[in-house]
Amino acid sequence: MTTAYGDFRLHGFKEPATGLEHAALCFGDLSTGEPVLVRLHSECLTGDAFGSCHCDCGPQLRSALKAIATAGRGALLYLRQEGRGIGLLNKIRAYALQETGVDTLDANRLLGLPADARDYGFAATMLSQLGIRSVKLLTNNPGKIEGLKAHGVDVVERVSLQVGRTTRNGAYLDTKAHRMGHLFDLARELPDEASEADPAR
Ligand SMILES: Nc1nc2c(ncn2[C@@H]2O[C@H](COP(=O)(O)OP(=O)(O)OP(=O)(O)O)[C@@H](O)[C@H]2O)c(=O)[nH]1
Ligand SMILES: [Zn+2]
Q: Do the beta carbons of residue 83 and residue 54 sit within 8 Å?
């Protein structure tokens, strides 16, 4: 599949336990045995496709594809874990609660849902089927590293993916840093000028 970032091989996967259909975009030669630059991207219809200013998902998706193409080899797994695994309708309900001043974590809890319902077992299966055993993971979320390690993937390095902060999603990103353990480099906690000017970039 030709993209704005380069030509990727597109693979589809069906998760037997859930029936969910996931995608993997692969770039370059992944069979050398060297650790592969990998992004596990959790679906965010609002941010990835609609250009929502509520989160940093859209800029992260595009930045990850760019980084993989620039590196010359890598894979982006697009996981259908909308709303951190609670689904689109529940995420919309959680957004409505956030309009009343509740943060992203408490909104899920008020709905009686886990703060993060994601599991990375099938992502590990996808990597294995792609022949990827050792990864450099593009993420700020230590939970993803632990999640992959728990399923036997060798995560040799974390590569920061800190893009897309704007004045409108700052409080959301602060909640991820302070209440959800995300590893943000505080020195870079300033609005990203390019995202501020064009959140859909
Ligand atoms: N429930 C809920 N999900 C959200 C909200 N905002 C974004 N999401 C979902 O969160 C997921 C992305 O998770 P993040 O916490 O932004 O980032 P991450 O994937 O854990 O970590 P990174 O790898 O660093 O990007 C996507 O599935 C989004 O749909 C929200 O306010 N409530
Ligand atoms: Zn998002």
A: no
Say whether 117 sits in a helix, a strand or coil.
coil
Q: Is 135 in the pocket of ligand 1 (CB under 6 A)?
A: no
Q: Indicate the pTM of the whole model.
A: 0.93
Of all protein residues, the one whose alpha carbon is nearest to atom 9 of ligand 1 is 83
| pLDDT, tens only, 106-157 | 999 999 999 999 999 999 999 999 999 999 999 999 999 999 999 999 999 9
Backbone phi and psi for residue 26, each to the nearest 5 degrees, phi listed first:
-110, 145
Structural domains in the chain, CATH included, are 2-81+118-197 (3.40.50.10990), 83-117 (no CATH)
Phi, psi of 28 (to 5 degrees): 75, -170
Contact in structure between 103 and 55 (CB atoms under 8 Å): no
Q: Is 118 a catalytic site residue? A: yes
Nearest CA to ligand 1 atom 13: 84
CA angle 171, 175, 177 (to 5 degrees): 115
Whether the CB of 62 sits within 6 Å of ligand 1: no
